[in-house]
Amino acid sequence: MATYDTIVRGGRIVTASEVYQADLAIKDGVVAAIGYDLGDSAEVVDAKDMLVLPGGVDTHVHLDQTGLGPEMCDGFDSGTASAAAGGTTTVVCFVWQPKGGSLAQVAADYRVKAEKARVDYSFHLTVTDPTPEVLEVELPQLIAEGCRSVKVFMTYDGVRLDDREVLRVLAAARRNQALVCVHAENHDLIAWLTEQLVSAGLTTPKYHAYAKPMIAEREAVSRIIALAEALDVPIQIFHVSGAQSAEEIARAQARGLKVWGETCVHYLTLTADDLDRPGFEGAKFIFGPPARTEADQEALWGYLKRGVIEVISSDHSPTRFDDPKGKKFAGDPAPFNKVPNGIPGLAARLPVLFTEGVSKGRIDLPTFVRLTSTNPAKLFGLFPQKGCLAVGSDADFILWDPQKTVTLTNALMHHGGDYTPYEGYQTQGYPVATFLRGQQVFDGSAVVGAAGGGRFIARPPYPMITPLQRFPTPFNAVHATLI
Ligand code: URP
Ligand code: ZN
Ligand code: ZN
Ligand code: ZN
Known about the structure:
- The chain is α/β, with parallel strands linked by helices.
- It has helices at residues 76-85, 103-113, 132-144, 163-176, 187-199, 207-211, 214-231, 243-254, 265-269, 294-305, 349-359, 365-379, 476-482; strands at 4-9, 12-14, 19-21, 23-27, 30-35, 41-46, 51-54, 56-58, 88-96, 120-126, 149-153, 179-183, 235-237, 259-264, 309-313, 397-407, 426-436, 439-442.
- The mean pLDDT is 96.
- N-(aminocarbonyl)-beta-alanine (URP) binds next to loops.
- The site of N-(aminocarbonyl)-beta-alanine (URP) has 8 residues, from loops.
- Residues 51-441 form the Amidohydrolase-related domain.
C-alpha cells in the first residue's frame, strides 16, 4: 500500500510568511509531509507552474438566513459551491436570533440546513434580543458547543441593539470567552437622513450612500470601541469601508486594545459611483456600509499593509436582482431604503483580491494568504486545522494559476444569484482546482464536491480574554464583580 493518498508535486507553496518550492503529501485528509522525494502515493497531483495556497477561510458569509427581509438566493448547497469555485474551503455563517425568539432553536435548525454544505463551516451567533434566557443559558451553551463568536448590529430596524443591550452582550461574551463582531453604523443618523432624502424625493439607488455616510460609520466604530474598552472585551469591526473607520481602529490598537478590523473586496474595488449606474442597475451595488471613494480604497490598502485591518472577507449576502423576491421585492424601481442590503461575493473574493493585490503589486503572496486564510482562521479559532499548510493541518488547498486571465461572468460564480457585481472584470490569477481535506471540490470549471461533503468545525473558547484591566482604578475590583 502506498505511503500517502496524494502527493501534490512541483508547486510553490505559499504560507503566511514564505513562498517555497516543495511537494505536499496527504494522508487521511491531513497534510502528512512537506518536502522533496516524499515517497509513493496512490495519486499524484501535478502542480507545475502553480501556487499551492491554503484554502480560503471566509469568516463573514450569510447563507440560508432569514432576518433581513427578502429571500436569500443561496443556501448551504449553492453558497458553498460558490465558495469552492472561488478557492474557499471554510465559511463561517450566522445563526440569526429572531426578535423575541430563541437563539438555540435557530442554531439547531441551522445545523440541519448546513448538512448540505460542500465545504467546511462554522457559526457565529447573531444576538438581536439579549434576554436573560439568551445571555445566561443559550449563549454559554452554544459557545461551549463551538460557536465562540457573537455578532451584534448597531443599525437596521428589527435587529439592532441599543448601547445598553450591546453592553449586556459584551459582558456575556467576556464571561463566556467569545469574540464580538460588530456592524457599526449610527442608526439614528441614518434613519434621519433617510427620512429627509425620501421626503425630498431623492430615492434612486445612489442616495443609499447619502443616507449612510462615512461619519455614521466612524461614529459607531468609535462608540463600540469605547464600550468594548470599558468592559475590556476584544471585538472585530466588520466591513470597514474607508479611511475614517480604519483610523479609529488604528488609534485603538495603538492604545493596546484588542480591536480587530475586517474589510471586504468590494470596498477595495467599488465606489459610491457604482450606485449611480443607469436605471435600477445601481441596486446591484446596495450593501451596507456603502462603497466609498477611490481615496478610501487607497487608504484601506495602506491599513491592510500595515496590519491594522487583518481580515478580508466577502460578506456574501446575496439576493437576486431581477426578482420580486430579491432586490425588487419592494417594487421596480423601489426607493433605495426598501432595497435589501447585500451582494454576492464568495466566488469572486480571492480572484479579484489576487488581481488587485498581488498581480498589481500592492501586496505580496504571504500577505494575500494572511488576509484571506491565516488571519481569519487564527482570530476565529480555526487555526491550525485551517488557515495554513503545515503537517497535521487539514489538507485544504488551492492550485492557483497566477497567470490565468478570466473574464468574470455570473455563471462562473456557481451561486444561486442572477448577477455578480464583477461582471466583465478581468482577473489575473485564478484557482484551477480546490481541495477540501484532500478531496477535490472544484476542478477549474465545475464544482465536483458533493453537497454534504462539508463538516461543522467546532471552535474552542476565545483565549485572549484576560483579567479585567480597563475600568479606571480604584473601581476595577468592584466592576469586575458586576461582570
Ligand atoms: O449589506 C450587507 N452587508 N448585508 C449583509 C448584512 C450585514 O450587514 O452584514
Ligand atoms: Zn453588517
Ligand atoms: Zn454581513
Ligand atoms: Zn455551478
